[in-house]
Amino acid sequence: MPTRFNHVYIESAGSFLPGAPIANAEMDAYIAPLNRISSRIKARILAENGIQSRHYAIDTEGRTTISHAQMAAAAVRDCLGQAGANIADVSLLSMGSSGGDALMPGFANMVQGEMGAPPMGTLSSQGVCAAGVTAILHAAQGIELGAHQKALAVAAEMPSRMFKRSRFGPRGYQSDFDAHFLRWMLSDGAGALLLVDGRKSTQGLHTPTGRAKVRLKLNWVHQQSFAGDYPVCMQLGLSEDRSTSFLDYPSASEAEAAGALSLRQDIRLLPHLFDVCIHEYLKLVDQGWVQSSEIDHFLCHYSSEKFMPVVADLLAKAGLTIPPERWYNNLRTRGNTGAASIFIMLAEFIATRTLKPGEKILCFIPKSGRISAAYMLLEVEAADAPASPAKPAPVVQAAPTIPAPHDPQKAPPTLQPLLTALASIWHGYRSDVWRSPVIHKLVAGQFGVVDYRNWTAQWVPQVRQGSQWMRKAVASLSGPFAELGALIETHASDEQDDFHILYSDYQAAGGTFALDDLQRNPGGEALNSYLHALAATENPLGLLGAIYIIEGTGQRIVPALLPLLRQQVKLPPSAFRFLEYHGANDAHHLARWLAAVEITLALDPRAADAILQTARHTAQLYLMQFEHIAQTSHSQ
Asked: Which CATH number is correct for 3-231+266-382, 1.10.238.10, 3.40.50.12780, 3.40.47.10, 1.20.1640.10?
Protein backbone atom coordinates (compact mmCIF):
# COMPACT_ATOMS: atom_id res chain seq x y z
CA MET A 1 0.00 0.00 0.00
CA PRO A 2 1.33 3.51 -0.75
CA THR A 3 2.46 5.76 2.08
CA ARG A 4 0.12 8.76 2.35
CA PHE A 5 1.54 12.18 3.27
CA ASN A 6 -0.52 15.14 4.44
CA HIS A 7 2.14 17.69 5.38
CA VAL A 8 5.15 17.14 3.05
CA TYR A 9 5.99 19.70 0.34
CA ILE A 10 8.83 20.10 -2.16
CA GLU A 11 10.36 23.50 -1.50
CA SER A 12 12.94 23.37 -4.31
CA ALA A 13 14.69 20.98 -6.70
CA GLY A 14 18.28 21.16 -7.85
CA SER A 15 20.60 19.18 -10.09
CA PHE A 16 24.18 18.88 -11.23
CA LEU A 17 25.47 17.48 -14.51
CA PRO A 18 29.27 17.32 -14.83
CA GLY A 19 31.07 18.95 -17.74
CA ALA A 20 29.71 19.88 -21.13
CA PRO A 21 27.09 17.72 -22.89
CA ILE A 22 28.65 14.81 -24.79
CA ALA A 23 27.00 14.11 -28.14
CA ASN A 24 26.82 10.60 -29.59
CA ALA A 25 29.61 11.35 -32.03
CA GLU A 26 31.88 12.36 -29.14
CA MET A 27 31.34 9.28 -26.99
CA ASP A 28 34.24 7.36 -28.49
CA ALA A 29 36.66 9.81 -26.93
CA TYR A 30 35.42 8.81 -23.46
CA ILE A 31 34.27 5.16 -23.64
CA ALA A 32 35.66 4.10 -27.02
CA PRO A 33 34.39 1.00 -28.82
CA LEU A 34 36.85 -1.85 -28.47
CA ASN A 35 36.41 -3.46 -31.88
CA ARG A 36 33.94 -3.83 -34.75
CA ILE A 37 31.55 -5.96 -32.66
CA SER A 38 31.51 -3.31 -29.96
CA SER A 39 30.89 -0.62 -32.59
CA ARG A 40 27.89 -2.51 -33.94
CA ILE A 41 26.49 -2.90 -30.41
CA LYS A 42 26.94 0.83 -29.88
CA ALA A 43 25.14 1.73 -33.11
CA ARG A 44 22.24 -0.57 -32.31
CA ILE A 45 21.77 0.65 -28.74
CA LEU A 46 22.03 4.35 -29.57
CA ALA A 47 19.53 3.93 -32.37
CA GLU A 48 17.05 2.44 -29.90
CA ASN A 49 17.53 4.50 -26.74
CA GLY A 50 17.08 7.94 -28.34
CA ILE A 51 19.76 9.61 -26.20
CA GLN A 52 21.41 12.49 -28.07
CA SER A 53 23.70 13.82 -25.33
CA ARG A 54 24.79 12.99 -21.81
CA HIS A 55 27.38 14.06 -19.21
CA TYR A 56 30.47 12.29 -17.92
CA ALA A 57 32.54 13.02 -14.82
CA ILE A 58 35.65 11.70 -16.60
CA ASP A 59 37.77 13.31 -19.30
CA THR A 60 38.98 11.83 -22.58
CA GLU A 61 41.97 10.29 -20.79
CA GLY A 62 39.68 8.46 -18.39
CA ARG A 63 40.63 10.68 -15.45
CA THR A 64 37.95 11.60 -12.93
CA THR A 65 37.13 15.31 -13.09
CA ILE A 66 34.80 15.39 -10.07
CA SER A 67 34.06 12.72 -7.48
CA HIS A 68 30.70 11.09 -6.95
CA ALA A 69 30.30 12.75 -3.54
CA GLN A 70 31.25 16.13 -5.00
CA MET A 71 28.53 15.77 -7.66
CA ALA A 72 25.92 15.03 -5.01
CA ALA A 73 27.11 17.96 -2.91
CA ALA A 74 26.88 20.26 -5.95
CA ALA A 75 23.25 19.20 -6.51
CA VAL A 76 22.48 19.90 -2.85
CA ARG A 77 24.03 23.37 -3.08
CA ASP A 78 21.98 24.10 -6.21
CA CYS A 79 18.80 22.98 -4.45
CA LEU A 80 19.48 24.95 -1.26
CA GLY A 81 20.55 28.02 -3.20
CA GLN A 82 17.22 28.21 -5.01
CA ALA A 83 15.35 28.10 -1.71
CA GLY A 84 17.62 30.58 0.00
CA ALA A 85 18.23 27.90 2.62
CA ASN A 86 21.35 26.82 4.43
CA ILE A 87 22.56 23.30 5.11
CA ALA A 88 22.35 24.16 8.81
CA ASP A 89 18.55 24.40 8.38
CA VAL A 90 18.41 20.73 7.35
CA SER A 91 18.30 17.97 9.95
CA LEU A 92 18.14 14.90 7.65
CA LEU A 93 20.14 13.89 4.57
CA SER A 94 18.61 10.90 2.76
CA MET A 95 20.79 9.61 -0.07
CA GLY A 96 20.00 7.13 -2.87
CA SER A 97 22.50 5.69 -5.34
CA SER A 98 23.85 2.50 -6.88
CA GLY A 99 27.02 3.13 -4.86
CA GLY A 100 29.39 5.89 -3.86
CA ASP A 101 33.10 6.43 -4.37
CA ALA A 102 33.84 3.85 -1.66
CA LEU A 103 32.20 0.57 -0.69
CA MET A 104 31.96 1.96 2.84
CA PRO A 105 31.14 4.09 4.75
CA GLY A 106 27.64 4.99 3.62
CA PHE A 107 27.34 7.41 0.71
CA ALA A 108 25.18 9.86 2.70
CA ASN A 109 27.94 10.21 5.27
CA MET A 110 30.50 10.82 2.52
CA VAL A 111 28.32 13.54 1.00
CA GLN A 112 27.75 15.10 4.42
CA GLY A 113 31.50 15.12 4.96
CA GLU A 114 32.12 16.59 1.51
CA MET A 115 29.83 19.50 2.35
CA GLY A 116 31.24 19.95 5.86
CA ALA A 117 27.63 19.77 7.03
CA PRO A 118 26.75 19.96 10.74
CA PRO A 119 25.53 16.90 12.67
CA MET A 120 22.32 15.49 11.17
CA GLY A 121 20.44 12.29 10.56
CA THR A 122 21.49 10.32 7.47
CA LEU A 123 20.31 7.42 5.36
CA SER A 124 22.23 5.67 2.58
CA SER A 125 19.90 3.78 0.24
CA GLN A 126 21.76 1.51 -2.17
CA GLY A 127 20.01 0.11 -5.21
CA VAL A 128 19.45 0.99 -8.82
CA CYS A 129 16.91 3.41 -10.29
CA ALA A 130 14.40 3.30 -7.42
CA ALA A 131 17.02 3.91 -4.71
CA GLY A 132 16.30 7.63 -4.98
CA VAL A 133 12.61 7.01 -4.31
CA THR A 134 13.57 5.17 -1.12
CA ALA A 135 15.53 8.27 -0.12
CA ILE A 136 12.46 10.46 -0.76
CA LEU A 137 10.23 8.08 1.17
CA HIS A 138 12.51 8.09 4.23
CA ALA A 139 12.85 11.88 4.23
CA ALA A 140 9.10 12.39 3.79
CA GLN A 141 8.28 9.96 6.62
CA GLY A 142 10.60 11.89 8.94
CA ILE A 143 8.80 15.14 8.13
CA GLU A 144 5.32 13.65 8.35
CA LEU A 145 6.10 12.27 11.82
CA GLY A 146 7.31 15.70 12.95
CA ALA A 147 10.88 14.55 13.54
CA HIS A 148 12.25 16.98 10.91
CA GLN A 149 11.14 20.32 9.52
CA LYS A 150 13.47 20.30 6.53
CA ALA A 151 15.06 17.27 4.89
CA LEU A 152 17.14 16.68 1.79
CA ALA A 153 16.49 13.73 -0.50
CA VAL A 154 19.41 13.30 -2.88
CA ALA A 155 20.37 10.85 -5.63
CA ALA A 156 23.55 10.60 -7.68
CA GLU A 157 25.10 8.17 -10.15
CA MET A 158 28.58 7.94 -11.66
CA PRO A 159 28.92 4.81 -13.81
CA SER A 160 31.33 6.30 -16.37
CA ARG A 161 34.40 5.16 -14.44
CA MET A 162 33.42 1.52 -15.06
CA PHE A 163 33.02 2.04 -18.80
CA LYS A 164 36.27 3.74 -19.78
CA ARG A 165 38.59 1.81 -22.08
CA SER A 166 41.32 1.26 -19.47
CA ARG A 167 38.94 -0.73 -17.24
CA PHE A 168 36.68 -2.36 -19.78
CA GLY A 169 39.08 -3.12 -22.60
CA PRO A 170 41.38 -5.68 -20.94
CA ARG A 171 38.48 -7.93 -19.95
CA GLY A 172 38.07 -9.22 -23.49
CA TYR A 173 34.25 -9.26 -23.55
CA GLN A 174 34.05 -8.35 -27.21
CA SER A 175 30.81 -10.28 -27.73
CA ASP A 176 29.37 -10.09 -24.19
CA PHE A 177 26.25 -8.09 -25.01
CA ASP A 178 25.00 -7.95 -21.42
CA ALA A 179 28.25 -6.26 -20.34
CA HIS A 180 28.42 -3.92 -23.36
CA PHE A 181 24.78 -2.85 -23.19
CA LEU A 182 24.93 -0.40 -20.30
CA ARG A 183 28.08 1.34 -21.56
CA TRP A 184 25.94 3.09 -24.14
CA MET A 185 22.97 3.65 -21.84
CA LEU A 186 24.18 5.17 -18.57
CA SER A 187 25.83 8.46 -17.67
CA ASP A 188 26.58 10.71 -14.69
CA GLY A 189 24.53 13.24 -12.75
CA ALA A 190 22.96 14.16 -9.42
CA GLY A 191 19.75 15.72 -8.17
CA ALA A 192 18.32 16.94 -4.88
CA LEU A 193 14.92 17.82 -3.41
CA LEU A 194 14.35 19.99 -0.35
CA LEU A 195 11.33 18.64 1.51
CA VAL A 196 9.62 20.79 4.15
CA ASP A 197 6.84 20.48 6.69
CA GLY A 198 3.78 22.32 5.37
CA ARG A 199 2.61 22.90 8.93
CA LYS A 200 5.68 25.08 9.49
CA SER A 201 6.11 26.68 6.04
CA THR A 202 3.63 28.14 3.54
CA GLN A 203 6.14 29.52 1.05
CA GLY A 204 5.71 29.03 -2.66
CA LEU A 205 7.73 26.61 -4.74
CA HIS A 206 11.29 27.77 -5.28
CA THR A 207 12.48 27.57 -8.89
CA PRO A 208 15.58 28.84 -10.71
CA THR A 209 13.49 31.79 -11.92
CA GLY A 210 12.26 32.77 -8.46
CA ARG A 211 9.46 31.96 -6.07
CA ALA A 212 6.35 30.59 -7.79
CA LYS A 213 2.80 31.27 -6.62
CA VAL A 214 2.23 27.59 -6.15
CA ARG A 215 3.54 24.92 -3.84
CA LEU A 216 4.09 21.25 -4.61
CA LYS A 217 2.61 18.70 -2.22
CA LEU A 218 3.78 15.11 -2.00
CA ASN A 219 0.55 13.11 -1.78
CA TRP A 220 1.95 9.58 -1.60
CA VAL A 221 4.86 7.30 -2.46
CA HIS A 222 4.60 3.64 -3.43
CA GLN A 223 7.48 1.24 -3.89
CA GLN A 224 7.16 -2.51 -4.35
CA SER A 225 9.92 -5.07 -4.93
CA PHE A 226 9.39 -8.31 -6.84
CA ALA A 227 12.78 -9.77 -6.03
CA GLY A 228 11.12 -12.97 -4.84
CA ASP A 229 9.43 -13.45 -8.20
CA TYR A 230 12.23 -12.92 -10.73
CA PRO A 231 16.00 -13.53 -11.00
CA VAL A 232 18.63 -10.80 -11.04
CA CYS A 233 18.27 -8.51 -14.04
CA MET A 234 20.99 -5.87 -13.54
CA GLN A 235 24.00 -6.45 -11.32
CA LEU A 236 27.55 -5.48 -10.43
CA GLY A 237 29.72 -7.70 -8.27
CA LEU A 238 28.61 -11.14 -9.43
CA SER A 239 30.06 -13.45 -12.05
CA GLU A 240 28.44 -13.59 -15.47
CA ASP A 241 26.25 -16.53 -14.40
CA ARG A 242 25.32 -14.72 -11.13
CA SER A 243 26.66 -17.62 -9.06
CA THR A 244 29.81 -16.12 -7.48
CA SER A 245 30.37 -12.89 -5.57
CA PHE A 246 33.43 -10.79 -6.37
CA LEU A 247 34.40 -11.29 -2.71
CA ASP A 248 34.63 -15.05 -3.22
CA TYR A 249 37.51 -14.83 -5.71
CA PRO A 250 41.06 -15.33 -4.36
CA SER A 251 41.92 -11.72 -5.18
CA ALA A 252 40.38 -8.53 -6.52
CA SER A 253 42.43 -8.86 -9.72
CA GLU A 254 41.02 -12.32 -10.38
CA ALA A 255 37.48 -11.06 -9.78
CA GLU A 256 38.16 -8.26 -12.26
CA ALA A 257 39.61 -10.65 -14.83
CA ALA A 258 36.60 -12.97 -14.49
CA GLY A 259 34.22 -10.10 -15.17
CA ALA A 260 32.65 -10.08 -11.70
CA LEU A 261 33.14 -6.31 -11.63
CA SER A 262 31.39 -5.73 -14.94
CA LEU A 263 28.03 -4.01 -14.81
CA ARG A 264 25.58 -6.27 -16.64
CA GLN A 265 21.95 -6.13 -17.73
CA ASP A 266 19.95 -9.22 -18.68
CA ILE A 267 17.84 -7.55 -21.37
CA ARG A 268 15.66 -10.65 -21.73
CA LEU A 269 14.04 -9.80 -18.40
CA LEU A 270 13.29 -6.15 -19.23
CA PRO A 271 9.85 -6.84 -20.77
CA HIS A 272 8.82 -8.41 -17.45
CA LEU A 273 9.98 -5.28 -15.61
CA PHE A 274 7.55 -3.02 -17.44
CA ASP A 275 4.82 -5.62 -17.35
CA VAL A 276 5.05 -5.85 -13.56
CA CYS A 277 5.31 -2.07 -13.16
CA ILE A 278 2.14 -1.41 -15.11
CA HIS A 279 0.45 -4.16 -13.13
CA GLU A 280 1.31 -2.26 -9.96
CA TYR A 281 -0.10 0.90 -11.49
CA LEU A 282 -3.36 -0.89 -12.17
CA LYS A 283 -3.44 -2.00 -8.56
CA LEU A 284 -3.12 1.63 -7.47
CA VAL A 285 -5.97 2.57 -9.80
CA ASP A 286 -8.11 -0.30 -8.56
CA GLN A 287 -7.54 0.75 -4.94
CA GLY A 288 -8.46 4.37 -5.63
CA TRP A 289 -5.04 5.99 -5.20
CA VAL A 290 -4.91 7.45 -8.71
CA GLN A 291 -6.95 7.78 -11.91
CA SER A 292 -5.34 8.18 -15.33
CA SER A 293 -7.90 10.84 -16.32
CA GLU A 294 -6.78 13.01 -13.39
CA ILE A 295 -3.07 12.97 -14.30
CA ASP A 296 -1.98 16.28 -15.83
CA HIS A 297 1.73 15.43 -16.09
CA PHE A 298 3.32 11.98 -16.31
CA LEU A 299 7.05 11.98 -15.51
CA CYS A 300 8.14 8.56 -16.72
CA HIS A 301 11.67 7.32 -16.16
CA TYR A 302 12.73 4.83 -18.79
CA SER A 303 16.22 3.86 -19.85
CA SER A 304 15.47 3.84 -23.55
CA GLU A 305 12.88 5.40 -25.83
CA LYS A 306 12.38 1.85 -27.09
CA PHE A 307 10.44 1.22 -23.89
CA MET A 308 8.17 4.27 -24.17
CA PRO A 309 5.71 2.56 -26.53
CA VAL A 310 5.89 -0.53 -24.31
CA VAL A 311 4.62 1.49 -21.33
CA ALA A 312 2.04 3.28 -23.48
CA ASP A 313 0.80 -0.01 -24.95
CA LEU A 314 0.42 -1.65 -21.54
CA LEU A 315 -1.51 1.36 -20.24
CA ALA A 316 -3.71 1.27 -23.32
CA LYS A 317 -4.39 -2.44 -22.92
CA ALA A 318 -5.58 -1.74 -19.41
CA GLY A 319 -7.89 1.02 -20.64
CA LEU A 320 -5.84 3.58 -18.66
CA THR A 321 -4.12 5.59 -21.37
CA ILE A 322 -2.33 8.80 -20.37
CA PRO A 323 -2.26 11.05 -23.49
CA PRO A 324 1.26 11.48 -24.90
CA GLU A 325 1.10 15.27 -24.59
CA ARG A 326 1.04 14.81 -20.82
CA TRP A 327 4.27 12.78 -20.77
CA TYR A 328 7.54 14.42 -19.76
CA ASN A 329 11.03 13.00 -19.97
CA ASN A 330 14.48 14.51 -20.60
CA LEU A 331 16.32 11.30 -21.48
CA ARG A 332 17.39 12.65 -24.89
CA THR A 333 19.38 15.56 -23.51
CA ARG A 334 20.35 14.43 -19.99
CA GLY A 335 20.92 10.73 -20.55
CA ASN A 336 19.99 7.91 -18.20
CA THR A 337 21.37 8.79 -14.78
CA GLY A 338 19.78 5.88 -12.91
CA ALA A 339 18.52 6.78 -9.44
CA ALA A 340 19.19 10.47 -10.13
CA SER A 341 17.02 10.53 -13.28
CA ILE A 342 13.70 11.36 -11.62
CA PHE A 343 15.39 14.10 -9.53
CA ILE A 344 17.02 15.70 -12.56
CA MET A 345 13.74 15.33 -14.45
CA LEU A 346 11.75 17.01 -11.67
CA ALA A 347 14.24 19.87 -11.36
CA GLU A 348 14.05 20.63 -15.09
CA PHE A 349 10.28 20.17 -15.16
CA ILE A 350 9.73 22.62 -12.30
CA ALA A 351 12.09 25.15 -13.89
CA THR A 352 10.49 25.06 -17.34
CA ARG A 353 6.75 24.48 -16.75
CA THR A 354 4.09 26.85 -15.49
CA LEU A 355 2.21 24.84 -12.91
CA LYS A 356 -1.40 25.54 -11.96
CA PRO A 357 -3.21 24.77 -8.70
CA GLY A 358 -5.06 21.49 -8.86
CA GLU A 359 -2.70 19.81 -11.34
CA LYS A 360 -1.49 16.33 -10.47
CA ILE A 361 1.93 14.94 -11.38
CA LEU A 362 2.54 11.20 -11.43
CA CYS A 363 6.14 9.99 -11.34
CA PHE A 364 6.95 6.44 -12.46
CA ILE A 365 10.31 4.82 -11.71
CA PRO A 366 10.96 1.18 -12.67
CA LYS A 367 13.99 -0.58 -11.22
CA SER A 368 15.64 -3.41 -13.10
CA GLY A 369 18.17 -4.59 -10.52
CA ARG A 370 15.88 -7.31 -9.19
CA ILE A 371 12.64 -5.85 -10.61
CA SER A 372 10.68 -3.34 -8.57
CA ALA A 373 8.24 -0.53 -9.25
CA ALA A 374 8.00 2.91 -7.69
CA TYR A 375 5.44 5.70 -8.05
CA MET A 376 4.91 9.15 -6.55
CA LEU A 377 1.91 11.46 -6.83
CA LEU A 378 2.46 15.20 -6.47
CA GLU A 379 -0.26 17.84 -6.41
CA VAL A 380 0.03 21.56 -7.15
CA GLU A 381 -1.57 23.93 -4.63
CA ALA A 382 -1.83 27.71 -4.48
CA ALA A 383 0.95 29.08 -2.29
CA ASP A 384 -1.51 30.95 -0.07
CA ALA A 385 -4.04 28.13 0.15
CA PRO A 386 -4.98 26.99 3.67
CA ALA A 387 -3.42 23.76 4.82
CA SER A 388 -5.20 20.76 3.36
CA PRO A 389 -7.05 18.56 5.85
CA ALA A 390 -5.57 15.14 6.39
CA LYS A 391 -6.84 12.63 3.83
CA PRO A 392 -7.55 9.03 4.78
CA ALA A 393 -5.97 6.30 2.71
CA PRO A 394 -8.30 4.64 0.20
CA VAL A 395 -9.90 1.40 1.29
CA VAL A 396 -7.67 -1.38 0.01
CA GLN A 397 -9.40 -4.14 -1.89
CA ALA A 398 -8.66 -7.76 -1.20
CA ALA A 399 -6.50 -8.47 -4.24
CA PRO A 400 -4.13 -6.45 -6.45
CA THR A 401 -4.91 -5.84 -10.11
CA ILE A 402 -2.71 -6.32 -13.17
CA PRO A 403 -3.54 -6.55 -16.85
CA ALA A 404 -4.44 -10.09 -17.67
CA PRO A 405 -3.01 -12.43 -20.28
CA HIS A 406 -5.60 -11.17 -22.77
CA ASP A 407 -5.83 -8.20 -25.12
CA PRO A 408 -8.34 -5.76 -23.61
CA GLN A 409 -7.90 -3.41 -26.56
CA LYS A 410 -10.08 -5.80 -28.54
CA ALA A 411 -12.69 -5.99 -25.80
CA PRO A 412 -15.72 -3.70 -25.62
CA PRO A 413 -15.94 -1.43 -22.56
CA THR A 414 -18.66 -3.64 -21.07
CA LEU A 415 -16.03 -6.34 -20.51
CA GLN A 416 -13.63 -4.09 -18.57
CA PRO A 417 -15.02 -4.85 -15.07
CA LEU A 418 -14.65 -8.60 -15.64
CA LEU A 419 -11.19 -8.27 -17.19
CA THR A 420 -10.00 -6.06 -14.34
CA ALA A 421 -11.30 -8.48 -11.71
CA LEU A 422 -9.71 -11.42 -13.54
CA ALA A 423 -6.45 -9.52 -13.68
CA SER A 424 -6.59 -9.15 -9.91
CA ILE A 425 -6.78 -12.93 -9.54
CA TRP A 426 -4.05 -13.41 -12.12
CA HIS A 427 -1.53 -11.09 -10.48
CA GLY A 428 -1.64 -12.90 -7.15
CA TYR A 429 -1.47 -16.29 -8.88
CA ARG A 430 1.51 -15.28 -11.04
CA SER A 431 3.48 -14.07 -8.06
CA ASP A 432 2.66 -17.21 -6.05
CA VAL A 433 3.77 -19.45 -8.93
CA TRP A 434 7.12 -17.67 -9.22
CA ARG A 435 7.70 -18.29 -5.51
CA SER A 436 6.66 -21.96 -5.59
CA PRO A 437 9.53 -24.35 -4.71
CA VAL A 438 10.10 -25.64 -8.24
CA ILE A 439 10.19 -22.20 -9.90
CA HIS A 440 12.18 -20.66 -7.06
CA LYS A 441 14.79 -23.38 -7.55
CA LEU A 442 14.91 -22.47 -11.24
CA VAL A 443 15.24 -18.74 -10.49
CA ALA A 444 18.00 -19.50 -7.98
CA GLY A 445 20.02 -21.25 -10.70
CA GLN A 446 19.87 -24.67 -9.03
CA PHE A 447 17.76 -26.52 -11.59
CA GLY A 448 19.00 -29.63 -13.37
CA VAL A 449 17.96 -32.35 -15.81
CA VAL A 450 16.41 -34.49 -13.06
CA ASP A 451 14.28 -31.56 -11.90
CA TYR A 452 13.06 -30.92 -15.44
CA ARG A 453 12.34 -34.59 -16.04
CA ASN A 454 10.38 -34.78 -12.78
CA TRP A 455 8.36 -31.70 -13.73
CA THR A 456 7.43 -32.90 -17.22
CA ALA A 457 6.52 -36.35 -15.88
CA GLN A 458 3.84 -34.78 -13.67
CA TRP A 459 2.72 -32.27 -16.28
CA VAL A 460 2.05 -34.73 -19.13
CA PRO A 461 -1.09 -36.39 -17.65
CA GLN A 462 -2.53 -32.99 -16.72
CA VAL A 463 -2.16 -31.66 -20.27
CA ARG A 464 -3.52 -34.93 -21.63
CA GLN A 465 -6.82 -34.30 -19.85
CA GLY A 466 -7.22 -30.74 -21.16
CA SER A 467 -9.15 -31.45 -24.34
CA GLN A 468 -11.28 -34.07 -22.54
CA TRP A 469 -12.85 -31.75 -19.97
CA MET A 470 -13.33 -29.08 -22.64
CA ARG A 471 -15.25 -31.52 -24.85
CA LYS A 472 -17.30 -32.59 -21.86
CA ALA A 473 -18.16 -28.92 -21.32
CA VAL A 474 -19.24 -28.56 -24.97
CA ALA A 475 -21.64 -31.48 -24.54
CA SER A 476 -23.11 -29.73 -21.47
CA LEU A 477 -23.95 -26.51 -23.33
CA SER A 478 -27.57 -26.02 -24.28
CA GLY A 479 -30.00 -23.39 -25.51
CA PRO A 480 -28.45 -20.10 -26.68
CA PHE A 481 -25.06 -21.09 -25.21
CA ALA A 482 -24.66 -23.89 -27.72
CA GLU A 483 -22.99 -21.46 -30.12
CA LEU A 484 -20.02 -21.37 -27.75
CA GLY A 485 -19.45 -25.02 -28.53
CA ALA A 486 -17.75 -24.34 -31.86
CA LEU A 487 -15.18 -22.02 -30.27
CA ILE A 488 -14.42 -24.38 -27.41
CA GLU A 489 -14.30 -27.39 -29.73
CA THR A 490 -11.77 -25.59 -31.93
CA HIS A 491 -9.71 -24.86 -28.87
CA ALA A 492 -9.94 -28.48 -27.69
CA SER A 493 -8.82 -29.68 -31.13
CA ASP A 494 -5.77 -27.42 -30.93
CA GLU A 495 -4.91 -28.83 -27.50
CA GLN A 496 -5.69 -32.52 -27.95
CA ASP A 497 -2.29 -33.61 -29.21
CA ASP A 498 -0.16 -31.22 -27.15
CA PHE A 499 0.56 -33.86 -24.53
CA HIS A 500 2.45 -35.87 -27.17
CA ILE A 501 4.87 -32.95 -27.57
CA LEU A 502 5.33 -32.70 -23.82
CA TYR A 503 5.82 -36.47 -23.51
CA SER A 504 8.56 -36.27 -26.15
CA ASP A 505 10.22 -33.53 -24.07
CA TYR A 506 10.05 -35.83 -21.06
CA GLN A 507 11.73 -38.60 -23.05
CA ALA A 508 14.38 -36.18 -24.36
CA ALA A 509 15.16 -35.42 -20.71
CA GLY A 510 15.78 -39.12 -20.10
CA GLY A 511 12.32 -40.17 -18.94
CA THR A 512 11.54 -43.89 -19.41
CA PHE A 513 8.02 -44.35 -18.01
CA ALA A 514 5.34 -45.31 -20.49
CA LEU A 515 2.78 -42.62 -21.23
CA ASP A 516 -0.03 -44.43 -19.41
CA ASP A 517 2.14 -44.93 -16.31
CA LEU A 518 2.72 -41.22 -15.66
CA GLN A 519 0.76 -39.89 -12.69
CA ARG A 520 -0.51 -36.44 -11.80
CA ASN A 521 0.67 -35.09 -8.46
CA PRO A 522 -1.97 -34.31 -5.77
CA GLY A 523 -2.40 -30.74 -7.02
CA GLY A 524 -2.79 -31.89 -10.61
CA GLU A 525 -5.26 -34.56 -9.52
CA ALA A 526 -7.35 -31.99 -7.63
CA LEU A 527 -7.35 -29.61 -10.61
CA ASN A 528 -8.34 -32.35 -13.04
CA SER A 529 -11.18 -33.59 -10.82
CA TYR A 530 -12.49 -30.06 -10.35
CA LEU A 531 -12.53 -29.27 -14.07
CA HIS A 532 -14.17 -32.55 -15.06
CA ALA A 533 -16.84 -32.21 -12.36
CA LEU A 534 -17.63 -28.65 -13.41
CA ALA A 535 -17.70 -29.57 -17.10
CA ALA A 536 -20.44 -32.12 -16.38
CA THR A 537 -22.85 -29.48 -15.04
CA GLU A 538 -25.43 -27.73 -17.23
CA ASN A 539 -23.99 -24.75 -19.12
CA PRO A 540 -20.62 -24.65 -17.26
CA LEU A 541 -19.83 -21.08 -18.33
CA GLY A 542 -17.43 -20.61 -15.45
CA LEU A 543 -14.91 -22.82 -17.23
CA LEU A 544 -13.98 -19.77 -19.28
CA GLY A 545 -12.26 -18.62 -16.08
CA ALA A 546 -10.29 -21.88 -15.96
CA ILE A 547 -9.16 -21.46 -19.57
CA TYR A 548 -8.07 -17.92 -18.74
CA ILE A 549 -5.70 -19.11 -15.97
CA ILE A 550 -4.40 -22.15 -17.86
CA GLU A 551 -3.77 -20.36 -21.14
CA GLY A 552 -2.39 -17.33 -19.32
CA THR A 553 0.19 -19.57 -17.69
CA GLY A 554 1.31 -20.61 -21.15
CA GLN A 555 1.44 -17.08 -22.50
CA ARG A 556 2.84 -15.09 -19.58
CA ILE A 557 4.78 -17.47 -17.33
CA VAL A 558 6.18 -20.06 -19.73
CA PRO A 559 8.09 -17.58 -21.96
CA ALA A 560 9.92 -16.27 -18.89
CA LEU A 561 10.88 -19.77 -17.74
CA LEU A 562 12.21 -21.01 -21.06
CA PRO A 563 15.45 -18.94 -21.12
CA LEU A 564 16.23 -20.02 -17.54
CA LEU A 565 15.67 -23.67 -18.41
CA ARG A 566 17.90 -23.46 -21.46
CA GLN A 567 20.68 -21.93 -19.37
CA GLN A 568 20.60 -24.51 -16.60
CA VAL A 569 19.26 -27.74 -18.10
CA LYS A 570 21.87 -29.17 -20.43
CA LEU A 571 19.57 -30.72 -23.00
CA PRO A 572 19.09 -30.29 -26.77
CA PRO A 573 16.42 -27.89 -28.08
CA SER A 574 14.14 -30.87 -28.75
CA ALA A 575 13.60 -31.17 -24.98
CA PHE A 576 11.79 -27.81 -24.77
CA ARG A 577 9.39 -27.99 -27.70
CA PHE A 578 6.22 -27.87 -25.59
CA LEU A 579 7.25 -24.74 -23.69
CA GLU A 580 8.36 -23.01 -26.87
CA TYR A 581 5.14 -23.89 -28.68
CA HIS A 582 2.88 -22.57 -25.93
CA GLY A 583 4.85 -19.40 -25.46
CA ALA A 584 4.35 -18.62 -29.14
CA ASN A 585 0.75 -19.75 -29.62
CA ASP A 586 -1.21 -19.09 -26.44
CA ALA A 587 -1.74 -15.43 -27.30
CA HIS A 588 -3.85 -16.62 -30.27
CA HIS A 589 -5.71 -19.01 -27.98
CA LEU A 590 -6.52 -16.17 -25.58
CA ALA A 591 -7.90 -14.03 -28.39
CA ARG A 592 -10.34 -16.85 -29.06
CA TRP A 593 -11.11 -16.98 -25.34
CA LEU A 594 -11.94 -13.27 -25.34
CA ALA A 595 -14.44 -13.79 -28.17
CA ALA A 596 -16.10 -16.58 -26.16
CA VAL A 597 -16.39 -14.32 -23.11
CA GLU A 598 -17.95 -11.57 -25.18
CA ILE A 599 -20.58 -13.96 -26.54
CA THR A 600 -21.28 -15.32 -23.06
CA LEU A 601 -21.77 -11.96 -21.35
CA ALA A 602 -23.96 -10.72 -24.17
CA LEU A 603 -26.26 -13.69 -23.50
CA ASP A 604 -26.07 -13.58 -19.71
CA PRO A 605 -24.13 -10.81 -17.87
CA ARG A 606 -24.51 -12.80 -14.64
CA ALA A 607 -22.05 -15.37 -16.01
CA ALA A 608 -19.22 -12.99 -15.01
CA ASP A 609 -19.53 -14.17 -11.39
CA ALA A 610 -19.15 -17.82 -12.38
CA ILE A 611 -16.14 -17.01 -14.59
CA LEU A 612 -14.45 -15.15 -11.72
CA GLN A 613 -15.17 -17.89 -9.19
CA THR A 614 -13.83 -20.62 -11.48
CA ALA A 615 -10.73 -18.58 -12.32
CA ARG A 616 -10.05 -18.13 -8.61
CA HIS A 617 -10.45 -21.83 -7.84
CA THR A 618 -8.40 -22.87 -10.87
CA ALA A 619 -5.58 -20.55 -9.82
CA GLN A 620 -5.57 -22.10 -6.36
CA LEU A 621 -5.48 -25.64 -7.71
CA TYR A 622 -2.93 -24.90 -10.45
CA LEU A 623 -0.71 -23.36 -7.79
CA MET A 624 -1.12 -26.54 -5.73
CA GLN A 625 0.06 -28.48 -8.77
CA PHE A 626 3.20 -26.29 -8.95
CA GLU A 627 3.84 -26.62 -5.22
CA HIS A 628 3.70 -30.43 -5.31
CA ILE A 629 6.15 -30.83 -8.21
CA ALA A 630 9.24 -30.68 -6.01
CA GLN A 631 7.63 -32.94 -3.40
CA THR A 632 6.55 -35.71 -5.79
CA SER A 633 9.13 -38.00 -7.37
CA HIS A 634 8.22 -39.47 -10.75
CA SER A 635 11.28 -38.71 -12.77
CA GLN A 636 12.43 -41.92 -14.44
From this structure: 3.40.47.10
